[in-house]
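In keeping with the milestone schedule agreed at the kick-off meeting, the structural modelling team has produced records for the first pair of proteins. Each record is given below as a sequence line and a structure-token line. The laboratory manager (R.T.) confirmed that both were archived under the project's standard naming scheme.
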Amino acid sequence: MQNLTVLGTGVLGSQIIFQAAYFGKNVVAYDLNDEILAKLDARWEYLKGEYLRDLPEATEQKLEDAISRIRTTSDLADALSDSDLVIEAVPERLDIKQDTWQKVSALAPSKTIFATNSSTLLPSDIAPFTDRPENFLALHFANEVWKNNTGEVMGHAGTSAEAFEQVAAFAEEIEMVPIRVLKEQPGYVLNSLLVPFLNAAAALFVKGVASVEDIDKTWRIGTGAPKGPFEIFDIVGMMTPYNLSKNNPDPIQQEFAEILKRDYIDQGRLGKGSGRGFYDYE
């Protein structure tokens, strides 16, 4: 699968685009309007710095070649015209994803395989809104994909074995480590472990038990982990934890969502990719 279309150019969508292009794929980056797409040049410069820092084999020439393989468009029909694989990275709301896939189904070539990068939603809740449920599944990336390079492949009961293995092979071709999730599970393997951990940190913060810095410090010192939970929030970006916490029935998590919106999102503190989150990176 040489021709990739990525729907959504936010924190993770842009990383998927860049990673695939870096490893030789032709990538179309789609978003809702040209104003959003115009911000991608700055995003590519940021990611170039990350690749040069973290990947010993990365060079300026390789990174410029990657950028040359990326094309942007706000025309969905154009984005899908020759796509072998579509990866969707739109906001983490079921209604948005279902609506997106209905529109994609009406325009995508018959050859195209569909994959969602949803963090917590199940493929089986989205597949009926496509015209090819047998070729619909999930390919989930961890943030900072160039170094945290798991590619969790998860189908639903109706996903064909052929589509499953094609997507696993694609993940390997862009230097991800394919993790074959054998049973449909909200959160796959990674987020089934990560989300309860981050929720616990959010609860400590909301209750005023300890500061952001001390919660992170405790985790790093006590476990030897390289990053604490709020450093991870900054890598993920604020919008995903905001949407998840807002829709969580736990009042503590709902209060955390309100804090994220008021004190961080509305102040432009969107996470590491924007230069500011719980910490300052500028």
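The second protein of the pair:
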Amino acid sequence: MRFRIERGALADAVAWAGRALPARTPLPVLGGLLLEASDGRLSVSGHDLEVSARTAAEADTAEPGRVLVAGRRLLDVCRVLPDGPVECVREGARLAVACGGVRFGLAALPMEDYPALPAVPEVCGELDAAALAAAVAQTAVAAGRDDTLPVLTGVRIDLHDDTLVLAATDRYRFAVRTLDWRPLPGRSAPSGSGTDKAGTGGSVVVPARRLLDAARALAGAGTVRLALDDGVLGLEGGGAVATMRLIDGVLPRHERLFALDGPAVVVAERAPLAEAVRRVAVVADRHGPVRLDFSAGSLLLEAGAGDDDTASQRLPAALSGPATHASFNPAYLADALGALEAPYVQFSLLGPGQRVLLAGRGTQDGPEEPGHHHLLMALKNAG
């Protein structure tokens, strides 16, 4: 095996495939990256049995071949190589990497112990890469972190005729984002383990952190092709592919939770409110709430109480309905405000201790922007 490739191209390919490297594994070979050179291309891939990442770059492949080397060590080597062409040669049980007078010898891992890469599912549609990355970030923030409840650590993807809906919840908040996509004719939604039917398409649950990482990495690809099969989701774009195993189970539906009967509605500027939440939360205990008092023409933020440290700030706001108040986990409220992009935020409130629905508005008097909502459970007995 012998090939030559520009340092930048090698570093980019290794960095992409390195996304699949596990932090810790009882199987050392899963910490390896597989390099395969043939027909003027170098492909680099990695996987940890749950997620895989693979890509290819142009290379001068003088002698075809394949080798498995420690992925994190290769990442480190690529970071310190000087600019210029990199010459890589398989020398027995080693891969020699040379560039600009610098030479490394990397021990080859046993290929026979490396599991086969998972097959990439059949593509079922495509969508804008940047829009997908933004939408995943806006919903993944509400996913759970408790691995003992795996389905709550996922993002649900609902496939419909021309829209794709992302949803995530940790039981205390629920984020939903809708975006356009282009399904391929004749491709039906998958069914089976980890899926359920949703409208005219299907529904699957994908690990939130894995999906967020892949979507962000592909944000500049222009178009992302979504591939689905029983048990696996794939994302393809810009010559790179990522696959991840679906999570078994069904994430709760949001439609009934989002249907509020006669709520009070408050509209305020989003950015100043987000800054005010961060400001007053400085005095809140770890689990201390931030209270928002909504009245005609303003809202008052307060944190702390009694003999403890306190903070408050008043902001202008428009209220439709009776004066009311609600208390929130400040981190959850800050996450929701940060995920919204519109200049104004609309609160739809049922009352203290009940659920509150947040949506964006382009102007204070305009309609709410469809496609992105964030539900928060207000804290009970919090003032």
